[in-house]
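Final report, Chapter 2: Outcomes

The project's central promise was a pipeline that accepts a single protein chain and returns its three-dimensional structure in a standardized token representation, suitable for archiving and comparison. That pipeline is now operational. To close this chapter, we reproduce one record exactly as it appears in the project archive, with the input sequence first and the structure output second.
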Amino acid sequence: MKNSDFTTRLGFALHGIRSAWRHERSLRSQAYIALALVPLMLWLQPQPLWWAVVGIMVVLVLAAELFNTALEHLADHLHPEQHPAIGLVKDCAAGAVLLLSLGALWAAAWMVIDTLF
């Protein structure tokens, strides 16, 4: 609720993340990929800036996945029937996740190049 105390708002946020984790395969897949980066990063031992870049990209991709999930649930609730406009909204949200994921791959590639060469 608006103007609730911090712990209440934090509880709402954690509930949303837990719910998305339980019901959204895409979020779990993205999170598992992020976890797989940890051993790679430990092996490569990149500069601290690369740790920050990779961390930021991981958080951005996961946040985009949560926004996508929220938008899909809202659209399905407001308009449960198939509709081209609703489909386009959902496709655009999925496209945003895809673009961020490609950006994360781009950053990871440059980190590997910078670290190994």
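Archive annotation: The longest helix spans residues 84-116.
This record, like all others produced under the grant, will remain available to the consortium after the project formally closes.
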